[in-house]
Amino acid sequence: MIDIHTHILPGIDDGATNIEDSLDLARAAVADGITALIATPHHADGRYTNHAAFVTEQVERLREELANHQIPLEVYAGQEIRVHSDMLDAWSANELATLAGSRYILLEMPSSSIPKRMLEYIHELTIMGIRPIIAHPERNAEVVKHPDKLKEMIEAGAFGQMTTHSLLGGFGKQIERKAWQLCRDGLIHIISSDAHHTVRRGFRLKEAYNRLKSEFGEGFVKTYIANAESIISNSEMIDCPSKSSSTRWLNWFKFTKSAQKG
Ligand SMILES: [Fe+2]
Fold first, then answer.
1. Alpha carbon of 42 to ligand 1 centroid (Å)
2. How far is the CA of 34 from the centre of ligand 1 (A)?
3. How far does the centroid of ligand 1 lie from the alpha carbon of residue 6, in Å?
4. How many domains does the chain have?
5. Do residues 104 and 131 lie in contact, with contact meaning Cβ atoms separated by under 8 Å?
6. Could you tell me how many helices (H) and strands (E) the chain has, helices first?
7. Which of 65, 146, 203, 243 would bridge with 184, disulfide CB 3.0–4.6 Å?
8. Could you read off the pLDDT of 157-205 as tens digits, one per residue?
9. If DSSP codes are grouped into helix, strand and coil, which group holds residue 128?
10. CATH label of the domain that carries residue 153
11. Mean confidence (pLDDT) of the chain
């Protein structure tokens, strides 16, 4: 399994505070069945600044530590970029990192609302060949009230990333309900942990996939897993699954089977 959103780098944001924390997170990731993850420290959120070159340097150091401690985990560089008005200038200045050097970037909206120019940013980034992924939309108050606004963003070229803890109730009942609704409605392409700390906020990726499998079926999980792999391999993601499309697929399968029998 691949986790595309984590705060594993030591001492540069509100995730791992030191290298011991990072190594604990890495061991927990391996125990959860994760083989590769992307380090996505906060960037430009008013609290933390972690430019692309700095993140790459930090990832190199962590790789060395992982090798020294014989922890079998691949780590790639990325960022969780707060949506801000200078984003396109920052891209031109090479301050922004894509996820694992791919065409995808991870964007974070403020938790209270959707930025006014959000659709415009998605459109401009898409024209530049960059594919924006919206981090945990289920935790944005405006998306919770108006899920259609997330649909508009996806239609404009963005992708949705759901957090394991939201699905598993870690952020309360309201977010849990909304998280399942967004998956059911086909507005989510990838599941990841947004892990910060082994105890306070770990991975729970396997647990989330197992719950999704029992609620919505294996096809959902396979798509989410394939999409996470597509980021690492810089290939196109498959359309997000939805309850209605999986029902259609099931009907098609039943029809084919009965046609074969008949
Ligand atoms: Fe995050």
1. 7
2. 17
3. 6
4. 1
5. yes
6. 11, 9
7. 243
8. 999 999 999 999 999 999 999 999 999 999 999 999 999 999 889 999 9
9. coil
10. 3.20.20.140
11. 92
Give 116 Cα–ligand 1 centroid separation in angstroms: 21
Query: At 95, is the secondary structure helix, strand, or coil?
Result: coil
Give dist(CA 7, CA 197) in Å, integer. 8
The closest of 86, 145, 148, 158 to 119, measured between CA atoms, is 158
Please give the pLDDT value at position 238.
82
CA of 248 to the centre of ligand 1 (A): 34
Mean pLDDT of the region 109-129: 96
Average pLDDT over residues 97-115: 97
Torsion, CA 3, CA 201, CA 178, CA 47, rounded to 10: -90
The strand pairing partners of 192, in sequence order, are 163
Give the rounded distance of the alpha carbon of 217 from its chain centre.
20
Q: How far apart are the first and last CA of the chain?
A: 40
Structural domain of residue 201, as residue ranges?
2-261
Residue 245 has pLDDT above 90, yes or no: no
